[in-house]
Design brief:
- There is one protein chain.
- This protein is mostly beta strands.
- The chain is built from no helices and 11 strands.
- The strands form 2 sheets. Strands 2, 4, 5, 6, 9, 10 and 11 form a 7-stranded mixed beta sheet that branches. It has a 4-stranded antiparallel beta sheet with strand order 1-3-8-7, with no helix packed on it.
- A hairpin with a 6-residue loop joins strand 5 and strand 6.
């Protein structure tokens, strides 16, 4: 069992920045890539960003490309999602997850952290 724990969500205004953190067990990148997903009220959970375990490549949904950045700090066993220029449509619960390519199979989810952007 892999436990993931997100933090850093909150209430911000449009145009603000926020950084989410996902604490994970050490050496997780030996077995999994990592990613962020989000789910707005009444909508399905959608892909936001991913970080490949193989070569560190990053991938983003079109809706966040250029505004969000996924990164990792292995010394802290943490994956981050830096979110800049937030918009009201970014309001959602954000989840980190382990990813197995090529079909983006998700083995483990965190509990989620709420991000609310007021316009």
């Amino acid at each position: 069992q892999v436990q993931l724990k997100e933090s850093g969500g909150g209430l911000v205004q449009a145009g603000d920045s926020l950084r989410l953190s996902c604490a994970h067990p050490g050496d997780i990148f030996s077995n999994f890539s990592m990613g962020w997903f989000r789910q707005a009220p009444g909508k399905e959970r959608l892909f936001v960003a991913a970080l490949s375990k193989r070569d560190g490549s990053t991938y983003y949904a079109d809706s966040v490309a250029g505004r969000f950045t996924i990164s990792r700090d292995d010394a802290k066993n943490t994956v981050y999602l830096q979110m800049n220029d937030l918009k009201s449509e970014d309001t959602a619960v954000y989840y980190c997850a382990t990813i197995r390519w090529p079909r983006m199979f998700i083995d483990y989810w965190g509990q989620g952290t709420q991000v609310t952007v007021s316009s």
